[in-house]
Write a structure and sequence with these properties.
With 213 residues, the protein is α/β, with parallel strands linked by helices. The chain is 39% helix and 22% strand. It is built from 7 helices and 10 strands. The chain has a 6-stranded mixed beta sheet with strand order 7-6-5-8-9-10, with helices on both faces. Strands 1-4 form a two-stranded antiparallel ribbon. A two-stranded antiparallel ribbon has the order 2-3. The protein is globular and about 50 Å long.
């Protein structure tokens, strides 16, 4: 698993899907100043990276959720990854909208999802965990048996860990922030001094003292 985590971390860094800029901060929608920016949609534009990710997600599902009957992507970033991974595993897939449609049949869940179906949620990124848990809850409301979540990358924030535990759902990610900053320092994306500072940011994003840690 460590080998996979490093491989995916290298992939994400190489295409700028996870971009570290500790000396020129990004501003999140919440106003928090962040040393990193994540956009795993970029991985879809790089066939070799995309191949690593989809095969990795298929491996996680086979290992941790072998009884899975269907995959459900999160809207919108998880949809393509769910579709490709489902193709590799020869399984049905669908996706869950952020909210029900205001026209037609008013669907929130697109694709077949019968009560009792054993489902795995496919997510691109887990930060605080809120959006993927909403998807899990929507599927459960329709009677699906949600086995768990697989994702490309997780920050490993305590808030997400607590939320997932409270929702009684597990997540398995291809890579994580701890591995990514290690690889980033090794390969010259950041100065080694920033490794612990970025992890401190992760542990408490609203506390700016990480910049001088």
């Amino acid at each position: 698993m460590i080998i996979m985590e490093k491989k995916i971390a290298k992939d994400l860094l190489s295409v700028g899907a996870v971009f570290l800029r500790p000396e020129e901060l990004f501003t999140w929608a919440s106003g928090i100043k962040s040393p990193m920016y994540c956009d795993n949609r970029l991985t879809l534009s790089y066939p070799e990276v995309r191949k690593d990710i989809e095969e990795g997600l298929a491996e996680l599902i086979t290992k941790y959720y072998p009884e899975a009957e269907s995959l459900m992507g999160t809207s919108t970033a998880g949809i393509a990854h769910a579709a490709i991974t489902a193709w590799l595993l020869n399984k049905p897939m669908g996706y869950v909208r952020g909210g029900a449609k205001d026209h037609g049949r008013g669907n929130r869940i697109e694709g077949k999802c019968e009560p009792g179906t054993k489902v795995v949620v496919v997510e691109d990124l887990i930060s605080t965990g809120g959006s993927c848990i909403e998807v899990v809850e929507a599927l459960r409301e329709e009677g699906a048996d949600v086995l768990g979540i697989v994702s490309i990358f997780t920050y490993g924030m305590k808030k997400a860990t607590d939320r997932l535990a409270a929702a009684n759902v597990t997540n398995h990610s291809l890579s994580n922030l701890d591995t990514l900053v290690e690889v980033a320092a090794e390969e010259g994306y950041i100065e080694p001094v920033w490794k612990n500072r970025i992890l401190k940011f992760r542990d408490n994003p609203s506390d700016t003292s990480w910049m001088e840690a």
